[in-house]
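subagent[fold] <- orchestrator: predict structure for attached chain, return C-alpha cells only, no commentary.
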Amino acid sequence: MNTPVQVGSSLFRPSSRLSAIGVSEILKITGLATELKRQGRGVIVLGTGEPDFDTPDHVKDAAARAMRSGATKYTALDGTPELKVAIRAKFKRDNGLDFAQDEITVAAGAKQVLFNAMMATLDAGDEVIIPTPYWVTYADIVLIAGGKPVLIPCQDANGFRLSADDLARAITPRTRWVVLNSPSNPSGAAYSEAAYRPIRDVLIAHPHVWLMVDDIYEHIVYDNFRFATPAAIEPSLQDRILTVNGVSKAYAMTGWRIGYAGGPSALIRAMAVVQSQSTSCPSSVSQAAAIAALNGPMDIVKERCRSFQARRDLVVAALNNIDGISCRVAEGAFYTFASCAGLIGRTTPDGQRIKSDTDFAEYLLRSADVAVVPGSAFGLAPYFRISYATSALELEEACRRIADATGRLQPREFT
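subagent[fold] -> orchestrator:
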C-alpha cells in the first residue's frame, strides 16, 4: 500500500500506516455493482448498510428552522449544550444511564466517535479485542491509531456472540479495549442482559480493560427482544465504558453525520482534543435535526422496525430454502449473515470452482446481478451478508436470482 506511485514528474508515497488498511470490501462491491448498473445491468445491490426510508419530516423541518434562524455557525467543539441535554435525556429514558453534561460527546457520525476514542487512548502495540464477524472499520481504526486488533472468531452455534471464556483467554497486560456491537453489523446478533453478564464478570476481574459498546442499532430489534447495554447492567463498570450511539440507523439520518457517546469525563475531554484537530464541531444544522430526532415521537421508528422484521423473515425463509445455504434468525439490525459452506467445492456452469465465500459473492454478481458481501470481509468465512434495507419486491427478486444461480452450480466431486 505504501509503494511509491508516479504522479506526473513526482513520486507519491503513502504513509506506512496505510500498508495494512485497504478500501472497505463493502465499498468495492457497491462501487462495482454501481458501475454495472450504469452499464445497463439490472443489478440488485444488497451490500449497503443504509435504511431505504427517508429522514422523518419533523427532523427535516427542525433543520430548516435552524437554517432560517441563522444557526449555521461553528458550535461548541463536541456538541451544542442543547443537543447534549437531548442525549442525556435519551440515555436516561431509554437506558437508565445518568450522564453529566461533561460526560457526553458529539461527532460527525458514530465512526468519528470510535476514531476519537482510539486515537485518544491507544499507544503503539496496545491491544483491542474485537469479536468476529465484525464491522471492519473497528480494526482499521485501531491500526491507524497504532494499536493491535485481536480478533476472536464467534461461531454460529453461539449466535455469533463472544463467549466469556474466549474473552478471558484473549486478555493480556497490553489489552486496552474490548469492542462489542449489539445488535451487530454484519450478523444481526444481539446480547441480552443475561448474555452480557458473563462478559461483565470477566471485565470486573481485569480492571485495566475498558469496554467500548456500539449501540447504533439499538432501536432495530425484533421478536420482543429486550435491548440491553452494559453500563446499565453493571454500574461499577461505568467508569471504564464508552457507550456509543447515533441517529443514522434508527432515524434514517446516515447523511446527516451525527454520532454521540457517553463515558467518563476524562476520556471525553481527551476525545475532544482529537476532534479539535480534525473536524472541529459537527454540523450545526445536523445537530438541530438530531435534537428533533431524539426528542420526537418514536412511532415512525417502531413502524419501520416492523417493516424491517418482515423483510428479515422474507429473506431468512428464502435463503433457508436454498440447498447449500443456511441462515440463522437475527435479533436485530437489518442484515442476514448466511452460511454458504454447503456450496464450497461446487462448480459454476462455466467450470469455475467455488473455493470461498468471495468466489460465491463474485459468482452471484457476475451471473445473477445480485451484490452481496462475503463474510471473509467481516473476518468470518464462509458466509455472506445481505442488507435487507431495501424494498420487499427487490428482496424477493434477489432471493429468486440467488436460488436460480445456486441451482445451476454443479455438485462437488468426491474422490
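orchestrator: received. Logging for downstream: The domain at 70-295 is CATH 3.40.640.10 (Aspartate Aminotransferase; domain 2). The mean pLDDT is 95.
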